[in-house]
Amino acid sequence: AMASPAVSPDSSSHEALSSVNSAPACSPTSDSENLSPDELELLAKLEEQNRLLEADSKSMRSMNGSRRNSGSSLVSSSSASSNLSHLEEDTWILWGRIVNEWDEWRKKKEKLLKELIRKGIPHHFRAIVWQLLCSATDMPVKNQYSELLKMSSPCEKLIRRDIARTYPEHEFFKGQDSLGQEVLFNVMKAYSLVDREVGYCQGSAFIVGLLLMQMPEEEAFCVFVRLMQEYRLRELFKPSMAELGLCIYQFEYMLQEQLPELNIHFRSQSFLTSMYASSWFLTLFLTTFPLPVATRVFDIFMYEGLEIVFRVGMALLQFNQAELVQLDMEGMSQYFQKVIPHQFDSCPDKLILRAFQVKYNPKKMKR
Questions:
Q1: Residue 232 backbone zone (phi > 0: left; psi -120 to 50: alpha; other: beta)
Q2: pLDDT at residue 346 in the model
Q3: Is the confidence at residue 222, as pLDDT, over 90?
């Protein structure tokens, strides 16, 4: 049990998720006495959905060749669409309740909350739920924000240069005088002033950009400060990048243990883990996947921390092992850039599902 509502994602895996090797089914645990009948029914619905997706992704894998265009996700089959709109309506009502009774959900219905977040936070609730998840709702630093903007930062030139490269395809950030670039500059500059040691770190603009697509700049600033402080991100972005080295080392360990054949192939081609995985950790897949998929991963990151990056990364390698072992270094680089990003565009749920089937042992990782 967590004493304070503040998040420490490193320890949030205290349920030793490694035991969840099958689909992330929530067998009603000690939590269930706090759940009302309709909440239990919702859990059952979600599990049913997981099972369908699971069966679907198995059949999808076997048709290897036509894997790309089988958009047979739950959503796209028309018979499911009427059920879906009901489920959607239920989900809305439910999330409205969750936000209103946040502390109770956080303390007593953790398991169900976790499961719902894995299913994706509904678009219109993201701003408030992300703020609640990282306890950024009433931070004193928010009141300093407008003052920080009046100061000048040694990082300004650097920030300006990088901002144009952040989400260049996205409407909100197009053009030098776009609103997006303006607020992105503001938040990055303000952060560089409150954290002089880290200052401005490349890659972090993608995270802030995603926050700004959901919420006003003061709020995005507060959430970013929290993410840096509480989620290992500050360590990742420190100039030495020692923490990134650690993440890569831990990821390599998992690769060696779980996909030995692929690991040997990577080595034979001098294809280093850092070549493909660094951006996964630094931008939380925001520079890998299209936004709808990356945002789903980010939802989970907000509750469960960096563990989800390891899980999704391993899931991608498992999913593609057969193809990768046949490619040389150049081929693999291309494959990581061109093929891997779009495999789950039509069915982010399948990616999430596979990620939670990956074996992950927090104790081992700490060690």
A1: left
A2: 93
A3: yes
In degrees and rounded to multiples of 5, residue 198 shows phi and psi of: -85, -40
Handedness of CA 178, 183, 185, 188 (dihedral sign): negative
Q: How far is CA 128 from CA 137, 139, 190, 209, 333, in A?
A: 8, 14, 22, 16, 38
Q: Do 279 and 308 form a contact (C-beta atoms < 8 A)?
A: no
Helix axis angle, 217-230 to 204-214, nearest 10°: 140
Q: Which two tokens stand for residue 285?
A: 């897949």
Distant-in-sequence, close-in-space partners of 33: CB < 8 Å, separation ≥ 6: none
Burial class from Cβ neighbours inside 10 Å (0-12, 13-18, 19+) for residue 241 reads middle
Q: Determine how many CB atoms are found less than 10 A away from the CB of residue 232.
A: 19
The predicted structure's pLDDT at residue 363: 93
pLDDT digits (tens, 9 = 90+) for 115-162: 999 999 999 999 999 999 999 998 999 999 999 999 999 999 999 998
Domains assigned to the chain: 138-231 (1.10.8.270), 242-366 (1.10.472.80)
Check: CB of residue 112 under 8 Å from CB of residue 303.
Answer: no
Interaxial angle between packed helices 348-355 and 37-62, expressed in degrees from 0 to 180 and rounded to the nearest 10: 100
CA distance 229 to 7: 10
Q: What is the pLDDT of residues 64-84, one digit of tens each?
A: 444 334 343 444 444 445 555
CA distance 262 to 270: 12
CA distances from 36 to 40, 93, 98, 111 (A): 6, 15, 13, 14
